[in-house]
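Usage

Read records sequentially. Each one opens with the input sequence:
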Amino acid sequence: MKKLIQRIKTLLQRILKKFTSNSQQPSPLINSRPLDTSIPSVSPRWESGLVLVCSQCANEQSGSTASEDLENWLKSRLKFEGLWGEFRVVSTSCLGVCPRMGITVVLVSNGSNGNSPCLIVNPQSDRELLYSRIKQNKK
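and closes with the structure output:
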């Protein structure tokens, strides 16, 4: 067993030595841009806000499509009022809040300074209230 561990150690040292000696040459497995550059960023079209709707909340509760219905309603309403593009509604997987009743919705805006409200919304009775909260973030 000691011999096997020693062989593995030696092999790893050779690989590491070979890798460090070839580090000046770009690897075919690594993107062609240098590794120390910053990640490129873009200015999204939805600068006024991003609405994250948890797709798991209603599915976990009753197998319904309430979160999908809420998401589609919000999209339609934003498009109808000409705000689609400034705002974007996106379905997400579990946000980790997991309410017993309702759907978790997070409102993200550029002006939120990291304080994005996380709301528990009744997908039927709270639609208009949620929509008015979204419009409050309009630039």
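Summary fields computed downstream for this record:
- The beta strands are 49-54, 87-92, 103-108, 118-121.
- The mean pLDDT is 80.
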